[in-house]
From TrEMBL:
Pfam families: MazG, PRA-PH. Belongs to the nucleoside triphosphate pyrophosphohydrolase family. It catalyses: ATP + H2O = AMP + diphosphate + H(+). PANTHER family: NUCLEOSIDE TRIPHOSPHATE PYROPHOSPHOHYDROLASE (PTHR30522). One of its GO terms (biological process) is dATP catabolic process. Its EC number is 3.6.1.8. Coiled coil: none annotated. This is Nucleoside triphosphate pyrophosphohydrolase. Residues 40-113 form the NTP pyrophosphohydrolase MazG-like domain. It comes from Sulfitobacter marinus.
């Protein structure tokens, strides 16, 4: 493809993914590209990839569909970025990545693309999916039950996934009541640790409590990461409500006190429920 046709592709709004791939090639061109883009590598781009995934989740949480369209584009750009670098280093290409995930989805859905029956429950489909994934891990010499749970996941989400994996092989509390009892035990240990142990030991006890809290979420059928994200959003919404009510009387939080702000917090909560 000549330079003229490449330029035409870059400005062709109907060209789809090929346009984006060519834009990335041009940005990474060592002679004519963008200096910042040329300097990047997998490690430097990875934090942006994680950030964009969270921004997608945030747009979904808020039901902001125009925003979601833009965030999905930002997330797609991350894939294009990584595959461009992979192609430059001879590891893989965008097309090989697409082929890989396409093959995987076909292999993991024999009830859609193969000769297996679709007449099964969602739970059975999930169980079958996990069997296929276990076989894939075995093929990659990942024999341990916890192998393949990404180290780079947010800690709360990784705890949930580790516990889920362990539960598949029978390492799990049989009912929610035992998890709640363990939370009470860990909370008591944390209170004790606060007074008599080192900061490192207090951190360890706090981590134990967080880990069991993630397990309680799993037993309740909840995603702890999503639950905490919702709690964060609720806190922001209510605190902004407190700020707004303070502003109505000409004050800022710095000019208020805990008692006043706590009363306004309760008023905001009540207004939400009414």
């Amino acid at each position: 493809m000549g330079e003229t046709s490449k330029d035409a592709l870059i400005f062709d709004q109907s060209a789809g993914i090929e346009r984006l791939l060519e834009i990335m090639r041009r940005l990474r061109d060592p002679e004519t590209g963008c200096p910042w883009d040329i300097e990047q590598d997998f490690a430097s781009i990875a934090p942006y990839t994680i950030e964009e995934a969270y921004e997608v989740a945030d747009a979904i949480e808020r039901g902001d569909w125009p925003e979601l369209e833009g965030e999905l584009g930002d997330l797609l750009l991350q894939t294009v970025y990584h595959t461009a670098m992979g192609e430059e280093d001879g590891h893989f290409t965008f097309q090989s990545v697409v082929r890989n995930i396409s093959d995987k989805m076909v292999a993991r859905h024999p009830h859609v693309f193969g000769d297996e029956s679709r007449d099964k429950s969602a739970d059975q489909q999930t169980a079958d999916w996990e069997k296929i994934k276990a076989a894939e891990r075995a093929g990659k010499a990942q024999g341990g039950a916890l192998d393949g749970v990404a180290v780079g996941l947010p800690a709360l989400l990784r705890a949930y996934k580790l516990q889920k994996r362990a539960a598949r092989v029978g390492f799990d509390w049989p009912d929610t009541g035992e998890v709640v009892a363990k939370i009470a035990e860990e909370a008591a240990e944390l209170v004790e640790a606060r007074d008599i142990l080192t900061q490192a030991e207090v951190e360890e006890e706090f981590g134990d409590l967080m880990f069991v809290m993630a397990n309680l979420g799993r037993h309740l059928g909840l995603d702890p990461e999503a639950a905490l994200r919702s709690a964060n959003a609720k806190f922001i919404r209510r605190f902004e409500g407190v700020e707004a009510r303070l502003a109505q009387i000409g004050k800022t939080p710095e000019q208020s006190d805990l008692a006043e702000m706590d009363a306004l917090w309760d008023a905001v909560k009540q207004a939400e429920r009414s």
